[in-house]
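[09:14] KT: can someone run the structure on this one? pasting the chain below
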Amino acid sequence: QVQLVESGGGLVQAGGSLRLSCTASGRTFSRYVMGWFRQAPGKEREFVAAISRAGVNTVYADSVKGRFNISRDNAKNTVYLQMNSLKPEDTAVYYCAAGSTFMSADVYYDYWGQGTQVTVSS
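[09:31] RB: done, C-alpha coordinates below
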Protein backbone atom coordinates (compact mmCIF):
# COMPACT_ATOMS: atom_id res chain seq x y z
CA GLN A 1 0.00 0.00 0.00
CA VAL A 2 1.26 3.46 -0.91
CA GLN A 3 -0.13 6.71 0.41
CA LEU A 4 0.50 9.85 -1.60
CA VAL A 5 0.22 13.43 -0.38
CA GLU A 6 0.44 16.37 -2.77
CA SER A 7 1.40 19.91 -1.86
CA GLY A 8 2.41 23.15 -3.52
CA GLY A 9 -0.78 24.17 -5.25
CA GLY A 10 -2.14 27.69 -5.10
CA LEU A 11 -3.15 30.79 -7.01
CA VAL A 12 -0.74 32.24 -9.54
CA GLN A 13 -0.96 34.77 -12.35
CA ALA A 14 -0.62 33.72 -15.96
CA GLY A 15 3.02 33.39 -16.90
CA GLY A 16 4.00 32.45 -13.37
CA SER A 17 5.41 29.24 -11.93
CA LEU A 18 4.54 26.68 -9.29
CA ARG A 19 6.23 23.52 -8.08
CA LEU A 20 4.07 20.66 -6.93
CA SER A 21 5.41 17.95 -4.66
CA CYS A 22 4.05 14.51 -3.92
CA THR A 23 5.48 12.51 -1.05
CA ALA A 24 4.86 8.80 -0.69
CA SER A 25 4.76 6.68 2.40
CA GLY A 26 6.60 3.40 2.66
CA ARG A 27 9.94 2.12 1.47
CA THR A 28 8.94 0.97 -2.01
CA PHE A 29 8.68 4.33 -3.75
CA SER A 30 11.44 3.53 -6.22
CA ARG A 31 9.49 0.52 -7.49
CA TYR A 32 6.74 2.73 -8.89
CA VAL A 33 6.31 4.71 -12.02
CA MET A 34 4.97 8.09 -10.95
CA GLY A 35 2.53 10.24 -12.83
CA TRP A 36 0.76 13.56 -12.59
CA PHE A 37 -2.80 14.02 -13.77
CA ARG A 38 -5.22 16.92 -13.59
CA GLN A 39 -8.94 17.50 -13.67
CA ALA A 40 -10.58 20.79 -14.47
CA PRO A 41 -14.19 21.54 -13.51
CA GLY A 42 -16.61 19.78 -15.84
CA LYS A 43 -13.83 17.92 -17.62
CA GLU A 44 -12.42 14.43 -17.46
CA ARG A 45 -9.17 13.70 -15.70
CA GLU A 46 -6.24 14.00 -18.08
CA PHE A 47 -2.64 12.89 -18.11
CA VAL A 48 0.04 15.52 -17.53
CA ALA A 49 3.39 13.75 -17.12
CA ALA A 50 5.03 10.53 -16.01
CA ILE A 51 8.49 9.48 -14.90
CA SER A 52 10.09 6.05 -14.82
CA ARG A 53 11.30 4.33 -11.66
CA ALA A 54 14.86 5.58 -11.83
CA GLY A 55 13.88 8.91 -13.31
CA VAL A 56 15.61 8.26 -16.62
CA ASN A 57 12.54 8.43 -18.83
CA THR A 58 9.81 11.03 -18.85
CA VAL A 59 6.74 11.68 -20.98
CA TYR A 60 4.48 14.71 -21.20
CA ALA A 61 1.12 15.66 -22.57
CA ASP A 62 1.45 17.87 -25.63
CA SER A 63 -0.36 20.66 -23.81
CA VAL A 64 2.41 20.99 -21.20
CA LYS A 65 5.49 19.94 -23.15
CA GLY A 66 8.24 22.53 -22.87
CA ARG A 67 6.57 24.24 -19.89
CA PHE A 68 6.34 21.51 -17.23
CA ASN A 69 9.08 19.28 -15.88
CA ILE A 70 8.62 16.11 -13.85
CA SER A 71 11.39 14.83 -11.60
CA ARG A 72 11.79 12.54 -8.63
CA ASP A 73 14.02 12.03 -5.63
CA ASN A 74 13.82 8.40 -4.57
CA ALA A 75 15.82 9.08 -1.40
CA LYS A 76 13.06 11.47 -0.32
CA ASN A 77 10.15 9.40 -1.67
CA THR A 78 9.05 12.49 -3.58
CA VAL A 79 8.04 13.34 -7.12
CA TYR A 80 7.87 16.92 -8.34
CA LEU A 81 6.10 18.82 -11.08
CA GLN A 82 7.71 22.12 -11.96
CA MET A 83 5.19 24.21 -13.86
CA ASN A 84 6.38 27.28 -15.75
CA SER A 85 4.67 29.73 -18.09
CA LEU A 86 1.34 28.83 -16.57
CA LYS A 87 -1.84 29.54 -18.49
CA PRO A 88 -5.43 29.93 -17.27
CA GLU A 89 -6.24 26.63 -18.98
CA ASP A 90 -3.82 24.89 -16.60
CA THR A 91 -6.30 25.55 -13.80
CA ALA A 92 -7.29 22.20 -12.31
CA VAL A 93 -6.92 19.87 -9.38
CA TYR A 94 -3.60 18.09 -9.82
CA TYR A 95 -3.17 14.52 -8.67
CA CYS A 96 -0.09 12.38 -8.36
CA ALA A 97 -0.34 8.66 -8.90
CA ALA A 98 1.83 5.57 -8.53
CA GLY A 99 1.75 2.66 -10.93
CA SER A 100 3.66 -0.29 -12.28
CA THR A 101 3.67 0.53 -15.99
CA PHE A 102 5.20 3.52 -17.74
CA MET A 103 2.05 4.61 -19.51
CA SER A 104 -0.09 7.73 -19.74
CA ALA A 105 -3.49 6.14 -19.21
CA ASP A 106 -4.83 6.46 -15.68
CA VAL A 107 -5.93 2.82 -15.61
CA TYR A 108 -2.29 1.82 -15.18
CA TYR A 109 -1.99 3.68 -11.89
CA ASP A 110 -2.98 1.97 -8.66
CA TYR A 111 -2.52 4.63 -5.99
CA TRP A 112 -3.69 8.24 -6.01
CA GLY A 113 -3.22 11.30 -3.86
CA GLN A 114 -6.03 13.56 -2.71
CA GLY A 115 -5.14 16.31 -5.15
CA THR A 116 -3.99 19.91 -4.88
CA GLN A 117 -5.71 22.89 -6.49
CA VAL A 118 -3.86 25.01 -9.01
CA THR A 119 -5.56 28.20 -10.15
CA VAL A 120 -4.06 30.43 -12.82
CA SER A 121 -5.57 33.88 -13.17
CA SER A 122 -5.49 35.83 -16.42
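[09:33] KT: thanks! The two ends are 40 Å apart (CA to CA).
[09:34] RB: yep, looked fine to me
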